[in-house]
């Protein structure tokens, strides 16, 4: 039993982090009323967290390689806990947003090292089992956030969604200190400051640009400026990393079609999660469900994802990632396609259940294979880099998905409502705030718009699935594989 305590520590930290990306959503109206702030300002309680995750995640994985992954995990856990306390005690909006940003920094450092910690603690069948359960916890946490947020906000206070992190952090900290061994460190003389700074510029500008695109449109001047800065930062980052003898991110990995395809699969799966944002908006803004009711409607995906990862995914560690990742993406495609076909003007919350079950199966089966393939792409002492890269692509996929799908959702609603009894722009925008008029035309437009959101996601998942079948090869490299083969991302042949 002792050997599984590191898994428990990593799962507790990951659960807390992922829940905090969604738990705030249902509490924003209560926060705004309590602090006397407009709801538009409170959106930054969500946005600043996303921004911090996008900037810090990859750097944290690299620092874990240099200073020790357990040390970075423990420090980040302490930062996360203290920031959660500050969020719960915040007396005004500025303090809450600032504390939430610090919480995002701590969360990014945690998620940037968790997969690498599992890779260092377990090998072979045990690694497959550990990654399976960890992936199951991630899927369950993403869907459980709205449920937990609804319960705590409705029966206690919005401050409880932050205070609950404190006891979990204490338990996780004790388990990490007592049972998680320190990892070997990469032989590198100094921190890659240039890489960290240029990547932060790229990630920060891109994430902020995506946030602005969702709020103000893709063609707005400040949005385009952010994307321009992001492009320049990315080019400079790539140039500097190629000149480094021991770079924060080995650019050569992206010359490997298998590695790039796995990253595409990570982003596609993240966009599927982004669909939940607009599913929740539809459930609350069109169907008029309570936050708790909307969370309950997502239970089929949460339960299926957990069961699939823990009962199926963990047993597939010897199967080629081409099969597991491809099957997961195929199930995501089927699930999103089912949602598109079944959403109509008379649809209700349970209409979504079959599609959510298929998406949950896809996440549960594909997740462990993706994680194993990423770990196999680099030597053990650089697993923090791979872990951080995967977490960064996951975060960008979610941010891009929320922004792009938001344009699809609102544009489709406005188009569907044109010529109807409700003003298209007003009704479409009011759905997100829960103030949409209760009219048949709004129900029809909401279902139509959400259906297109799922259709777009299905198309991306199908593309990622095809690329996986064509370019992902081999099974996870064994623990004793030569470092040269692992470092270049060449998996073992099947």
From TrEMBL:
Membrane-protein topology: Multi-pass membrane protein
Chain ranges of the Major facilitator superfamily (MFS) profile domain: 6-476
Pfam families membership: MFS_1
InterPro entries xref list: EmrB-like, MFS, MFS_dom, MFS_trans_sf
Signal peptide: none
Gene3D superfamilies in alphabetical order: MFS general substrate transporter like domains (1.20.1250.20), Multidrug resistance protein D (1.20.1720.10)
SUPFAM superfamilies, alphabetized: MFS general substrate transporter (SSF103473)
UniProt keyword terms in alphabetical order: Cell membrane, Membrane, Transmembrane, Transmembrane helix, Transport
Compartments where found: Cell membrane
Principal location listed in the UniProt entry: membrane
Organism (species): Dactylosporangium roseum
Membrane-traversing stretches: 46-67, 72-91, 97-119, 131-152, 158-181, 193-211, 217-240, 261-283, 289-311, 323-343, 355-378, 399-418, 447-472
Name the UniProt record assigns to this protein: MFS transporter
């Amino acid at each position: 039993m002792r050997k599984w305590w590191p898994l428990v520590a990593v799962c507790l930290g990951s659960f807390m982090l992922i829940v905090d990306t969604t738990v705030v959503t249902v509490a924003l109206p209560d926060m705004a009323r309590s602090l006397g702030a407009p709801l538009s300002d409170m959106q930054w309680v969500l946005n600043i967290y996303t921004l911090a995750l996008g900037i810090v995640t990859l750097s944290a994985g690299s620092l874990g390689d240099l200073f020790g992954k357990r040390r970075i995990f423990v420090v980040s856990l302490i930062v996360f806990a203290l920031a959660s306390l500050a969020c719960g005690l915040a007396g005004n909006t500025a303090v809450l947003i600032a504390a939430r940003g610090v919480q995002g920094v701590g969360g990014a450092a945690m998620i940037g090292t968790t997969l690498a910690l599992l890779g260092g603690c377990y090998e072979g069948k045990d690694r497959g089992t550990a990654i399976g359960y960890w992936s199951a916890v991630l899927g369950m946490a993403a869907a459980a956030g709205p449920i937990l947020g609804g319960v705590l906000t409705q029966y206690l206070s919005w401050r409880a969604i932050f205070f609950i992190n404190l006891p979990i952090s204490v338990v996780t900290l004790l388990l990490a200190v007592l049972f998680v061994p320190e990892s070997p460190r990469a032989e590198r003389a100094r921190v890659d400051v240039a890489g960290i700074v240029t990547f932060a510029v790229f990630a920060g500008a891109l994430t902020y640009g995506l946030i602005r695109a969702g709020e103000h449109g893709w063609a707005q001047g400040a949005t385009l400026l952010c994307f321009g800065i992001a492009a320049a930062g990315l080019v400079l980052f790539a140039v500097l990393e190629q000149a480094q003898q021991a770079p924060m991110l080995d650019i050569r990995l992206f010359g490997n079609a298998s590695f790039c395809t796995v990253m595409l699969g990570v982003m596609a799966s993240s966009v599927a999660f982004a669909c939940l944002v607009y599913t929740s908006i539809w459930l609350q803004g069109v169907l008029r469900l309570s936050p708790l009711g909307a969370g309950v409607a997502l239970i089929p995906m949460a339960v299926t994802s957990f069961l699939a990862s823990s009962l199926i995914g963990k047993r597939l560690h010897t199967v080629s990632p081409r099969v597991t990742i491809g099957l997961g993406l195929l199930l995501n495609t089927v699930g999103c396609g089912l949602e598109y076909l079944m959403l109509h003007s008379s649809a209700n919350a349970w209409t979504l259940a079959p599609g959510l079950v298929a998406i949950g199966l896809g996440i549960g089966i594909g997740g462990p294979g993706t994680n194993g393939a990423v770990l196999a792409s680099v030597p053990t002492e650089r697993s923090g880099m791979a872990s951080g890269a995967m977490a960064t692509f996951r975060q960008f996929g979610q941010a891009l998905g929320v922004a792009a799908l938001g344009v699809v959702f609102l544009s489709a609603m406005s188009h569907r409502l044109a010529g109807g009894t409700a003003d298209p722009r007003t009704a479409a925008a009011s759905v997100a705030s829960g103030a949409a008029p209760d009219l048949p035309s709004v129900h029809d437009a909401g279902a139509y718009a959400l259906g297109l959101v799922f259709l777009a996601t299905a198309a991306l998942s199908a593309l990622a699935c095809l690329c996986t079948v064509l370019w992902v090869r081999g099974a996870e490299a064994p623990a004793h594989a030569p470092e040269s083969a692992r470092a270049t991302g060449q998996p073992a042949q099947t």
